[in-house]
Amino acid sequence: MLKIKNLHAKVDGKEILKGVNLEVLPGEIHAIMGPNGSGKSTLASVIAGNEDFEITKGEVIFEGEDLEDASPEERAHKGIFLSFQYPVEIPGVSVTNFMKTAINESRKGRGMKDMPANQMLKLIREKSELLDIDRKFLSRSLNEGFSGGEKKRNEIFQMAMLEPKLAILDETDSGLDIDALRIVANGVNKLKSKENAVIVITHYQRLLEYIVPDKVHVIHDGKIVKSGSKELALQLEEKGYDWLKQETVV
Question: Where is the ABC transporter domain positioned along the sequence (predicted)?
């Protein structure tokens, strides 16, 4: 589904990614870990098409197509979803209306007509029930006055509604207590299928107790220096990152 080859990228003239290689297959969950400033969020932003970041070398291939010239909107229409570490507040726009607009814009980008209103309402009802979301929540302004847990749950609701092929969760566990973490992880697990894939970016092994990855990768200084099974995350919890600095990709 996703193939990244020798990816180099910079922002504000500074090189952040220095040769990332990664392959993600349908049905897989990949966790990306690493110390602050190692390039985790930059990698997520580059895959999603954030125009602040410039690719200087390498390729991002999604379902056999080079994404180099694709805008963030085009990537979203193709099925790439990025859950933000710090979701923005949009006063005056309800969660429901935001989702209706997002879904219909995505359909338009694929040459489809707007989703009929009754079908949209049915989808909203199904997905909110799947994620145990209160109906009152859906009428609130997007992220305005939301707790950290509510913001992250809303991101997972958006993911459920849009049904992306590749979901990238950028530090979704940031600032969550254990109950909110369980709720978010449960939502991700319910949405997993053989047709989609998930990349989880996290500092901590605790999220991976609830979202069990097929593979764990460690980024250090702009490169993936080690890959392994979920046991690698346990090693990182015990030893930190220093012992990996001299490692090469497995």
Answer: 2-246
